Automatic annotation (TrEMBL):
<dbReference type="GO" id="GO:1902387">
    <property type="term" value="F:ceramide 1-phosphate binding"/>
</dbReference>
<dbReference type="InterPro" id="IPR014830">
    <property type="entry name" value="Glycolipid_transfer_prot_dom"/>
</dbReference>
<feature type="domain" description="Glycolipid transfer protein">
    <location>
        <begin position="38"/>
        <end position="176"/>
    </location>
</feature>
<dbReference type="GO" id="GO:1902388">
    <property type="term" value="F:ceramide 1-phosphate transfer activity"/>
</dbReference>
<dbReference type="Pfam" id="PF08718">
    <property type="entry name" value="GLTP"/>
</dbReference>
<dbReference type="InterPro" id="IPR036497">
    <property type="entry name" value="GLTP_sf"/>
</dbReference>
<dbReference type="GO" id="GO:0016020">
    <property type="term" value="C:membrane"/>
</dbReference>
<protein>
    <recommendedName>
        <fullName>Glycolipid transfer protein domain-containing protein</fullName>
    </recommendedName>
</protein>
<keyword id="KW-0813">Transport</keyword>
<dbReference type="GO" id="GO:0005829">
    <property type="term" value="C:cytosol"/>
</dbReference>
Amino acid sequence: MSGDSDANASEPDICEAKILFRQLKPFPVIDETNGNKIDTRHFIEASNQIIDAMGCFGKLFSPVVKDMRQNVQKVADKFKQNESLFMYLEDLILKDASGNDVPFDTVTDGLLWLKRAFEMLEMFFRNMLADETCSEQVKPHLREAYEVCLLPYHGFLAQKAFQLLHLYLPSRSSLLGTPETNADNLTALKEFLVLFRANLTHLNDFYTKHDLHRTYKA
């Protein structure tokens, strides 16, 4: 009995990851077979899954999660108006339900804010992977991502809200698991970020091409 107790005591604690990237739907592939466009339904499904995963950041992040989910819902609601016409995200942005050109609307604006939030999230995870020290303290990674991706568009109140959320960010092991026991999760994260980044870069280029960027502060 005592031998078993000693053996168990010597085993390292296993910290299971809260976000299992292997289980998340990857963002759509952008290739020539679909005219270099983003499949709308696929984008919506992948967006909702990564937003669901953000729930593990803690209850204080609920307003952020809610805001992102509302912006995805704007896209989803417009998609349901005409799923054949809006099969691709680019067509959904540029056309109304009858196929007429729409230079800018609330859906375009919502997707713009969603893209910015996703860019912060992608940079946050990319910074974590690039941290060779594997520090448990990941707040600097989120702060850097926020300053690059969202701070330029946030007013005083939004900045203060982020500062509060930033204080309660979980540790690296809590989010991703330890490198020793969750190596596959880290590999899955690297793979997930490839298409995530490709979609964000594509949307950025699309918004620039059609002069859809807006720089007002929230």
